[in-house]
Request: fold
Amino acid sequence: MSGWKEIYRKKLVSIEEAASKIESGDKCWLGPCSAAPIQLMEAICDRANELKNVDIITGMALYPFKFFQSPDYIGKINFHTIFYGPVERNFYKVGNVNINSVHLSEFSGSMQPIYGVNTMLADVSVPDEEGYMYYGPMGVAANGEVAGFAKKIIVQVNKFQPKVSGIKHRIHVSEVDYICEYDHMLPELPQPEITEVEKKIAEHLLPRIKDGSCIQIGLGGLANAVGYGLENKKELSVHTEMFTDSMVYLAKKGVITGKMFAAFGLGSTELYEFVGEGKVELCPISIVNNPYEIAKKDNFVSINACLMADITGQVCSETIGHYIYSSTGGQLDYAKGVAMSKGGQGFLCMPSTVKNKDGSIGSTITLNLPAGEIVTTPRSEVMNIVTEYGIADLYHQPIRERVKRMISIAHPDFREQLHKQALEAGLIRE
Reply:
């Protein structure tokens, strides 16, 4: 489009003026993670006493915004997350973190009809030669869909936000209402060290992954243990909600030679730069996580972490009792999709033990789930559960067989007790 520079100039305002456009009652989608316009959001926080019932909705914040830090913001600027991460967890007790349970495949069906989103706040790249601003490695997951119905769009232009490739991955200057500018490095997600237990879990998995597979790997140390452990495989491709640092490593090493398709990239600056080179096709998460889209890929391998399971295979990945640790995310989306893939394999992984509050060691495989524990993936959707002691293939197995297989991958110190409990419950026979 011609004349976009003049349009840009007319819409350009200061951060403070952009923040002044937020009104009481606005329901704002905030670009997730590294797609958040940090300075704009902080300027909105500075207006809190002028506002009432402004809802900020996002997924896994990477910045400790002012609205997290004091209960004084409640009722003025309310925060909602569709994926609960470390920053939200740190401020949960303050009281202004509302956790919304949403399967990521259902994102587009919740933002407008359920949460009433009418405004978008996004960090974007500088315009290209045609006047398009790009949503960056994180923003494509949601921003493009929100922009389709938002009545008010405010963007913060940031020279460090990469120009990415994909579907609904950019917005023209003519399509936004206000533009402000602030350059800042993108927040990174620190990678945890890989533990010995996670290495052992990965060792069980890696022989099951064939050359030519299409992979999806989740978040955390276990994901890294598996991801980096794939370095000797060949001709892999990627279909994943989250493109990871381990995938960058595999791509540069020539292990991933097929299509790389993802909803977002989250991790290091190196990852952001790699995604910005256009080698990864980004797409809204409601498409990437659609089980029927996943099912179209043969030999799909889905690997995700979980927290605990009962001996029949009900999997918990969100809570520890009543304590909320994470979110629904895309785990069930991939459990459903991989089961429909020709040659598909799904793995849910966890260490066999956990350290309790009193310092004692408990089993992550139990007869009954603790009070308050949330089932993220029903046993009917689980294919394989993995601990450092092996893989329990549960898919379509009868209850007695499921119980025996789950006990076999429990920590040896708890197997006798679990066997006795299962007998007493009538789940197995001698």
